Amino acid sequence: MVFLFLLVGCPVALYAMGGSPIPDRIPSWEEVHTTLMRQDTDQSVFLATMFLICWGAWCLFIVTVCAEAINYLAGRSRPTVPRTVLPLQHLVRDLVATATLTFSAAASLATSTSASAAAHTHAATEIHNASVPELGSHHQSSPRQDTPPKDPTEPEWTPLLADEPPAQPKPDQAAWQTHVVKRGDTLWDLARRTYGSGDQYPEIFKNSRAIDQPDGLPALTDPDILHPGQRIRLPRPSAPHDAATPSRTTPPNTAAPSAPPGQDKPNGSPAPTLPRSTSDESTAAQVPSPVVAPPADHSATPPRPTPHDRDDPHSPLAISLPSGSRIGLGLAGALSVAVAATRLHRRRRRPLNTDPGSYGSTTEPPLPAPVLKSRQAHMSTYADQGALTPSDPELVRENLLAAEPDHLVTGTRDGQAVTISLPGLALGLSGDGAHAAARAITTELLSKSRRYRAEIVIPRTDAQALFPGADITGLAAALEGLVLTPSLNEGIEHLEAELLHRNRLRQMAELPDVPALRIDDPAEPLPTVLLVATAPAHDAATMYNSATVHALTTLGRRYSIGALLLGAWAAGTSLDLASDGTVTDANGPDAGQFTRARLFHLTADDAADMLQTIQAAAGIEAHVPAPTVSTGTPAPESAISLIPPPRPFTEDHQAPARLQVLGPVLLHAADRPITSGLRTCAKQLLAYLALHPKGVTRDQTVGALWPDLTPESAVMQFNTATTNIRKVLRAATGLTEPKYILHTAGHYRIDPDLIDVDLWQLTTTLMDAERATDDTERINALTPVSDLYIGGFASGLEYEWADAHREYLRRVVVDALGHLVQLTQEEQPDRALATLERAITHDPYSEPLYRDVMHLQARLSRPDAVRRTYQLLASRLDEIEADPNEDTHQLMATLSRPKPCVQDIGGSTD
């Protein structure tokens, strides 16, 4: 009634009392001046002014009503309006919502009554074909006998009454309704319940991205992450006659013919087998913790479990290491970047070796086996997605653009990611697996702590308890993001000071929180801060610390500060963990997120190895003894002995096929590359056999190439690769009799009479240089090296043996080219300079190469070129967050000075 009076009664009353507000003519200036200047004895001017104000207020009311009605029906939040209009907007919003709910409820009752009357006048079959299920009614007609019952674990469906569809929607009408996300909802389940198939969830995501979310909730930007309270758009249930959108009464399995177990669907995609998520009607304050995400793959089919997580076939997000550790792809990716940065720093420092008998020799410690396993698992994700494998510089450059970590995947539940929000985190871990789980979380954040992205504040005693085998002091010196404090009191004081500092910045900038500060001033260091410490006990001695930590975590959501505590934590969420990371008990506001979850966990030895690599990635190598346990990978120093030339190459010999393994693996026939037909497993086998020209057994091959497959599957993969190689080469060369891959005495090898290998040609050249008796002969032998080495060994293959030989061959080639420069720089400085430039293309971070270039440029009287070379080196090293050595800087300053002219007594200059 109030809404009806304001909408219709007000203008009628104003018109009856004061007439129309629109004048019949425009008064002249003299009439306006006379009216305003004379005394208002009859109150006519006052009353006219009040009538105009009332008409203006009513017009503003009508505009606000229209805006709120449009926003309500479109599912958008209210727009920003001036502060003076907010009370009116709130009143209109409540009135519009009340009126809409009232009329929609009446329509729902009318629809239900008409449907009930129709049930008495039509046959049962007609009712089933024509009836539409009521969304807002609790009473439904009984389903048919062949309709499967509703799954009790399916989340309750509660759309707004105002969003009910009409009885007979038009087929060409895009009918969507607003749904409020509940805890446990996923786009996959919602698509399955509306479309009849979860494969359609990208359609829901696409139509929901533009929706304005309620205050305090983030926008929908990732289909894998939903927050309770977010709004999304779902297709309205249509009548059975409408084939555009299947009805909700259609069982999910009838959307398409189901494939038998173990077979594929008709379209070639594997039949999905996803666990059903449960609903939780509890609400979350402010920004709720994200619920379990749908499948991580954004394609139309759910992701296929990767081989490196065979113990958890429903989770492609976890990696199991041989030691028993279980980590996530986030930590594996960070370690992959650390390995790349470590290699680049080692290249920068490595001096050239010009001894032909020991090209490529190195004394650098090997990378730890857990780190290499983690890197291999991460790099294999690129192949699983059909993407190109990035190089070490590309990985490091991409990591430079990474933002502050605000969320972290800490485990899996039912094969899906369990994510925590670091700002405002108040998580306590207890039980046998508490330290291992905290170790995994802390290690991942430490790997992201450079460039002021993350900061870990940890008391020294807790750091030693978490990482007993690591050099935690050396790590703190290498990482600016690791803050060791003498005790918990100093750690709390550090967080209090940081919170006050951020609060002052926020107030000066008049911004709401730290994320807004980062956007406003990206140069201000505002890392995500996490306190890792033993939970303070609830007694009189530590009551202040307990209350302070609780206050810091309460305010931490705004200031990007959180706490991970070792022990039960009653003020936040507390988890009890088994030794394998399984959550056995959960209490607190976010307990439902961790129910049935299994957290990632790290052993102390694996964590020490990973921290060693993280420290080396900062450019500071930790002096630790080499591991005594063999990893099964041949030492890089022995690679040259594994690839001797099977025969000398002659000009008149021309094999029908040629194998390229320097750069991408590629077969050539008739001087043309074979671009189709060769499978990935065949390329892997060819690269491995190229490293073993004398042959290798099948067991050795499958152990190196496919270690994660079962023995039967690995043998089948080997046979498939061999068959594919022979078939492709026979078709390309026209020679159908040869086998190309020989099998003699239990060993498989490439037939050298039919396939030339570029790697063997390079090895022959290097051996000729080693056997040379004088400099001229050695120069002739080393000259073809730069033309033969066109790229890294088998680029794109990510195996430990491939990485080892790739690094080794790169060092060998750079040393050989450096030796060629040494032999030619006296008589042919320009040729030596061109050779150095070719060497820099293969190793763009090697300071010794740049120093040799500057020496030659100075000899050729090019001081400007010396400075440009130094600037090029500085820009290259800046990509890996390093600076040129002080000796290199002094060399540039010395060589770039102009040489003084010397004048003799006779007046001539020299």
From TrEMBL:
Which organism is this protein's natural source? Actinomadura chokoriensis
Q: Which Gene3D superfamilies match?
A: LysM domain, Tetratricopeptide repeat domain, Winged helix-like DNA-binding domain superfamily/Winged helix DNA-binding domain
Q: Which Pfam families match?
A: BTAD, LysM
Cite the InterPro entries for this sequence.
AfsR-DnrI-RedD_regulator, BTAD, LysM, LysM_dom_sf, TPR-like_helical_dom_sf, WH-like_DNA-bd_sf
| Disordered: region residues | 133-175, 212-321, 346-370
Which regions are flagged for Low complexity bias?
243-257, 284-296
The UniProt entry, under SUPFAM superfamilies, shows: TPR-like
Membrane-spanning residues where?
45-70
| Protein's UniProt keywords contain Transmembrane | yes
Q: Where is the composition biased (Polar residues)?
A: 355-364
Q: What is this protein called?
A: BTAD domain-containing putative transcriptional regulator
